[in-house]
Amino acid sequence: xxxxxxxxxxxxxxxxxxxxxxxxxxxxxxxxxxxxxxxxxxxxxxxxxxxxxxxxxxxxxxxxxxxxxxxxxxxxxxxxxxxxxxxxxxxxxxxxxxxxxxxxxxxxxxxxxxxxxxxxxxxxxxxxxxxxxxxxxxxxxxxxxxxxxxxxxxxxxxxxxxxxxxxxxxxxxxxxxxxxxxxxxxxxxxxxxxxxxxxxxxxxxxxxxxxxxxxxxxxxxxxxxxxxxxxxxxxxxxxxxxxxxxxxxxxxxxxxxxxxxxxxxxxxxxxxxxxxxxxxxxxxxxxxxxxxxxxxxxxxxxxxxxxxxxxxxxxxxxxxx
Length: 321
Prior knowledge:
Blueprint: E1 12-15, H1 28-40, E2 45-47, H2 56-65, E3 74-79, E4 81-85, E5 105-109, H3 113-127, E6 134-138, H4 145-161, E7 167-172, H5 175-184, E8 189-193, H6 203-214, E9 217-221, E10 239-240, E11 243-244, H7 247-262, H8 267-273, E12 281-286, H9 291-302, H10 307-315
Parallel strand pairs: 1-2, 1-12, 2-3, 3-6, 6-7, 7-8, 8-9, 9-12
Antiparallel strand pairs: 4-5, 10-11
Helix pairs in contact: 1-9, 3-4, 4-5, 5-6, 8-9
C-alpha cells in the first residue's frame, strides 16, 4: 500500500489555529461561527494542535465536531509538545507565541515513545473525540531533529501499527527537516507550511522529490505566505513570516499578481489552487478568523482557473515548469 493511500483527505481543509486565539481573541461564539462557516462551505478536513492556544483550539474544534457525524470528516492534530502547568504564570497571556490565551500552561518538548502516546491521549481528551485520523510530529527541527528521526517517528509508526491512528506524518516550515523525515520513516502525509506556495517553492527542490520516491502525500499549509497572497492587491508592508518582506520577493509578488490580473483570476484563488497542481499534493489547508473568510476561501478553491495562467507563470519562471 502506498503511504498516502491509508487515508484520503479532502482537497480543502481548515487549519484551526485561529480558533485557538491566534493573533486576536475570539469568543466561544465567534469561534463556533467560524467553524460553522467552514462546515457550511463544504470543508470536511480539520487540522489542529496542542500548540494552538495551549489546547484551546483542540477544545473548541472538538466541541464543534462532536455535533457532526464522525464518518463525515477527517481530523488531524499534532504531537511533540506536551502541555503542563506553568509555574511562572502570573496572570499573563501567551502572546510571545502569538496566542491570546492565559499562559497558565507551558509547552514541554517530548519526543519519547511515552511522550508521543501521552500527547495523543491528551489531545483525545481535549477534543472529546476518540478517533483522530492523522497525527503529525510538530516542528521537530525546533527541538531536536535527530531525536525526532530516531525516536519520535518510530513511535508514530508504532501508533499506526497499533491502530491508534490511521495515518502519521510531520508538519514543519523547514524543507530540510521535512525531506529528512520523509526519507527516514514510512510517513503517509506531511504538512508543508509556507514552503510550497505560489510565491516561493523551496520544497520543490528536496521535499517533493522525496515524497514522489516514497509515495508520501503533501498537505500544503500557509499558502497565503502570512497573508501576502490573501488579497488580489498585495501590500508592500505586508508581514512575511516573522519580519519584513524582502525586496526580491516583493518584486516576484508584483509579477505574479500582474499575471493573475491579466487572466482575471483573483490572486488568493491562484494561491489556494497552485499547490494542488502538483501530483504529490493531496490537500490545501487554510486558516481564517472570520466566517466570511472561510466562505470566500471555499469559493476560491472551487473557482475554475484556466491552464493558460499556470502556463504563463511557468514561462515567466515564477513557478516550476
